[in-house]
Structures are given as C-alpha cells and as structure tokens.
Amino acid sequence: MWLALEDKVLVLLLIAAVVSLALGFFQDFGTPRPVGEPPVDWVEGVAIIVTILIVVMVGLLNNRQKERQFKSLNEKKEDRSVKVIRSGIERLVDVHQVVIGDICLLEPGEVILCDGIFLEGHGVCCDESGATGESDAIKKVPFEECVKMKVGQAGHTDCFVISGSKGIESVGRYIVIAVGQKSFNGQIMMALHGDTENTPLQLKLNHLPELIAKLGTANQKGIAFTQILIISVTLIVVPVPEGLPLAVTLALAFATKRLTAEKLLVHILGSCETMANASVVCTDKTGTLTQNVMTVVAGSVGIHTKFVDKLEDNKARTNVNSESDDKTRKHTQDFSIDQSHLNRVISPRLKQIFNEAIAINSTAFEDRDQETGETVSLGMIPFSSKRKAMGVVVKLPKGGWRLYLKGVSEILTGMCQRHVVVYKEGREKKEGPVETLEIDDLTRDNISHTIIFYANQTLRTIALCYRDFDTWPLRNAEHSADDDVEYDFLARNLTLIGIVGIEDPLRDGVREAVASCHRAGVTVKMCTGNNVLTARSIAIQCGIYMAGGVIMEGPVFRNLSDQEKLEIVPRLQVLACSSPEDKKILVEKLKELGEVVGVTGDGTNDGPALKIAHIGFSMSIAGTEVTKEVSDIILMDDNFSSIVKAIMWGRCVNDAVRKFLQFQISTNITAVIITFVTAVASTQEASILSTVQLLWINIIMDTFAALALAESSTHNDSMV
C-alpha cells in the first residue's frame, strides 16, 4: 500500500485532501455559520481521501492477485528435503535444519542445496552450469586426491560441491561447510535485494503533478486567506487526472491477464509498460533462440549419399555441389537427398543397422529383452574424453556378435577400413549381408572433405561404425588392468555406416520475432557461452548479426577500458564465449548510454544481470529458482518470440494511457476554465463547481470511459 502512495499524483491529491479537510473543519466549527445551514464543508476533504483509497485498493488487490499466482511456485520451492547421515543413520531432513558438519548424500538428478567438500564416491560428476555457467560436467574427487593433482592436470575436476548445481552421475557423500545466506546460492540471492527503479512511464507521469501544483497555486492574490486556500485546492484538484493511476493500473492488469494467456507470467506489474520503452534486448542462445535439443540436420550414409533436413530450404548444407563443376569434380558419385526420403535408397537391412547403431548404443537402452528376458547387451564402453567415443557389444539374432561405436568423426573414421554402399537408384543385393567396400584414398578424401564442410557450418559431426565378431569373449584379446578388453583392440577394422552433422536448431518463429524487433526499433544482442563460429552461425540464421555489426569474445570485451566499451557497445551484436559477469557489464554500459534494457537468463549466475536490467526475463523450463525469483517476467515456454509479445502489449498499455490522458485532460481543461472564471467573476469568490463534483466527473465518469481504452487489444502495428 505504501508503494502505491508513492505515486506523485496521489501524493498531490493527499496534500489537497489534508488542506481541504482542515479548511472544512475550520469553516464548519471554527467560524459562525448561518442559522439552518448544515456543517458539510468537510465532505470535500473526505471525498478526496475516498478517491485515493479507491485507487490504492485497486492497485493493492491487483498486486495480491499476482502474488497468488506465485504462491504455488514458492510453496514447491520451499518444500525441499536433504538426505543426511547423523549418528550413522541416513535421515531425510528439511533443508532449513541442515547444519555445518552434516554428511549429505549426493545422488544423480538432485539439486544441491548446501556448499560442501566431497568426501567419497566413484565417478561422481556435477552439472554446475546453473550455478557458475560452466557447461562441462565437473568430476568430484576427495580433497586429498585433489591436492595431489599437479597444476594443469585437474582440468574439469575439483573437490567442491556448490549449491545450485546438480548431480548427474553416480552417488557420493560430502560434508556441509556453508548453508543459507553463507552458501554460494544464498550469497547470490542476497545480492539481488535492492530498491526497484521507476518505470519509464512512471518517470514521465511524475512530471505532470509537479507542473499542475505550480500552475494551481500561482495567481491567487487579493482574496481572503481561507478563500485563497479553497480555490487553490479546487484549482489543484480540477486539472489533476484523478483517474490516471486507476486507469494505468487497470490497463496493466488487463495486459497482465492477456500476457498470461500468451505464456508470459508477469511478476512485477509495471514491467508490462517498461517493455514498451525497451530499446535493447540481450538474449541467451541456448533454449531461447534455439530449441536446446541437438538434432541431426545433415549427414552422409556410406560415402556418397548426402542427406539434408528440408533440402529445399537448406541447399547450402550439402557439399555435393561445393566443387566447381562436374568436369573437375573428384567425387562424381555423390548425390543429395532430403532427409525424409532416406528410406527410398536405404535397404531394410542397412536401415536396421543404422537404427541399432543409434538406439542400442545409448545409455537409455535396456540390456535385457522384455519378452524373453535374454541378455542382449554383453558389454558397454562408456563415453570418455580420452576415447571421445562410446560403444556397446550385442548378440545378433542369427548368431555372432556386433560392436557398435559412435563418437568424434575425425577419430573413428580413421579406424574404419570399409564403408557401407548405398546407390542412388536404391539397387542392392536382396540376400546376404549389407554390401561394403574398402576405403581407398579417394574415399578417405571424400570423408575428410565431408567432415570439414560440416565443421565450417558449425555442425558437430558424429561417425557411426560397427564391427562383427564370430566369438565372444574374444580369443587372444589384449586386456587392461581391470580385465576388460582393450578399447584399441576392439576399435580396429571398423565399417563406416555414416557421418551425421548435429546442431541445436532455431525455435519456430525466431527469425520473424527478431525482424519484428528491428522494425520496432529494438536492437537484439546475443550473449552466449559458445565459441565465435557457432555464435556467428546462429546469429546470422536469426538475423541478429548484420553488416557493420561486431562479434566479440567475452574475455576480450571484459579487458577493454570503460571508454572503449562505451564506444563498441552500440555496434556489438554478438558476445561469444561470455560469462554472466560479461553480460552484467554489457547491461551496465547500455544503461549508461541511456538505453532501456531487457535481459534473458536461466542460470543462477544470471541473477545480477537480471536484477540491474530494466526488465528481466527468466525461463520457466530451463531457469533456476534464483532467476525466477529476481525476474520481472517468466517465459513459460522459454521462447524468444514471447518477448516480442511482451513488447507489443507494453506498447498497447502506453497507447491506452495516452488515449486516456487525451480524453480526460480535454474535459479537465474545460473544468479548469469554468472553475477559474467563475471564481474570479463571483462576488462571493466561490467556484460554481465544487471539489466533490469534479472528483465525481474524474473518477466515475472518466474512469469508466477509460476502461474501454484499456480493453483495446494489441496489434502488429505497435511493432512498427
């Protein structure tokens, strides 16, 4: 309620109410009154106070409604339990009851709620991207083992368990060293507390009552003191659009309701109209511009069959025509095909091998047949950064065993000696095994050319291979210290099935949304942790990176001087390899240049940037609790297109307020002239219109008329 009373229009009315109420009591009870005349002069002051209460209560009820929407989210957020070991017994306790020195259990998929030192466990890895921005999994080892590691040997390995991160592999134990506000997650939450800045619309409207107050008290001389005050109060109340705060609140409430239907959950009411004035939007890439799902978009089956997803729209994805002409082409048998038409050229036997190479060689594969209960998978080769590949050995239905491998294409293709054959017209032997050919120098050049071509398009390439065995376990096999067959012994004489290029594709409608922002005068800047090549490719596809723009890496931007940052920021379109701190610096510099900045974030460490921005967008699906807590608007679908909808509705609110002001001020000008002229011309020095009558006109008549303006729907013209 006190926040609502900070509106300068209401403050001006409150002052007028106090003066009017004091004058009313003075005239009713402090001066002689004619016989039979009731003491009702105090009613005007009470009427103004009632008006203020109406406006404040409407805003208060609307804010309460928004708080109820977040109540369910907060209840789930607060209801957290942690597994601890006390007195040798495993217990499930509330997170608020965890103390320093407790031994906590770390399990896969669990969000860590306390800081700690890792004690024991085998192969434990944590995803700290939500807490620190580090995209790679961090392996956890005990403190003693971590100390023994040489400098530069640790890599993505440490002994610290950070609150806000998540366990992703194996189980372990850690000792708690920090909880609550002292933990990593708690310190970030405390740093987010601060005063809320006025929105651009509030700053503009705050000038109005100041001007009215000066005009209303200027030219009243030569009249009795009480009459001066009465007429001054009346002249102040008349031009003030008392219905303005109520109209703004109703327009924002209506926009908030519509935004909820558009999958935008508004946390702070004023953020709707703030987006109307946005001039820059700093957005993440993964999950916001893209789908955050690695998808096969191009590749080759065998050597010559080059497939592309939606070939007609992505002809640049195929390297069949990348050489000059047919006369100089080395690989004349290559042909392009749409990914959806692959079944036309691949035989059923090769299709089965292709599918098994992907589906069976997966961590989600069940190693037992659901019908017979027979063991299908005889051995797993887990992925490691050393091998850069993963594999599985399976028993074939007609006898024999097969090893499926998939991994980094540059490494696995070098281990292949043969490749499957696919003909353009779909010819293949009807019986017998899948046809294969030996890889010669020309074929190996084709493979190398394909991998480089996809890499230049910022696609990650994965090779699919297999090898058949007559017996298992293998005779005369080389074994490791753990009595497992050596990987190098298995990964020989492989047969290449194909190479696929994967990427995180754009969300539907992103290109159109970015184009709408540009037409509306809103600049879109992309901040991502990806490398420059990947960031540049996505920015071009989205339409963010254009001629004359600048792409810069985060460390380079961070080390610039303040003056150099201010000079480069207007032309900076893509900030690659950036950290959340780089994003925060970028937002600060944009604000120094007078821009109204909107920022998207999903990780805990994005909290400070979201807090200092004029408006912060958090992700409902991928976002952490910290970002949701500090943000102004939550994107329920994590889609950049929803930001455009927020801008459109914000501008719709501004249009509604502008129309309301035009409507109400046109009536108030007439009332001011009548009040002033009649007060000057009257022998009794009294206006023909009383304060109560003017308030009735402004609050009842004008406000109901303004509701029609607030109900106006958004349209695409607001983005032009």
From TrEMBL:
Its main location: membrane. One of its GO terms (molecular function) is ATP binding. One of its GO terms (cellular component) is vacuolar membrane. It catalyses: Ca(2+)(in) + ATP + H2O = Ca(2+)(out) + ADP + phosphate + H(+). The chain crosses the membrane at residues 42-61, 228-255. It is an enzyme of class 7 (translocase). Keywords: ATP-binding, Calcium, Calcium transport, Ion transport, Magnesium, Membrane, Metal-binding, Nucleotide-binding, Translocase, Transmembrane, Transmembrane helix, Transport, Vacuole. It is found in: Vacuole membrane. It is a multi-pass membrane protein. Residues 78-191 form the P-type ATPase A domain. Its EC number is 7.2.2.10. One of its GO terms (biological process) is intracellular calcium ion homeostasis. It holds the Pfam family Cation_ATPase. NCBIfam families: ATPase_P-type. This is Calcium-transporting ATPase 2. It comes from Jaapia argillacea MUCL 33604.
